[in-house]
Amino acid sequence: MFDLAHGADSAPLMQALAREVCAGDRRALAKAITLVESTKLTHQDQAAELLSLVMPKTGGALRVGISGAPGVGKSTFIEVLGNALTQQGLKTAVLAVDPTSALSGGSILGDKTRMPSLAVNPDAFVRPSPAGSTLGGVTRRTRETLLLCEAAGYEVVLIETVGVGQSETAVAGMTDLFVLLLSPGGGDDLQGIKRGIMELADLVLVNKADGTQQDLARQTVADYRSALQFMRSRTQQFAPRVMACSALQGDGIDQVWDCLAEFKTQLQSSGEFEANRSEQAKTWMWAETAEILMDALKRHPKVQAQVASLEAEVLAGELPATVAAKRLAQIYQAVSSSDTRP
Ligand SMILES: Nc1nc2c(ncn2[C@@H]2O[C@H](COP(=O)(O)OP(=O)(O)OP(=O)(O)O)[C@@H](O)[C@H]2O)c(=O)[nH]1
Ligand SMILES: [Mg+2]
Question: With 90 as the cut, is the pLDDT of residue 52 above it?
Answer without folding.
Answer: yes
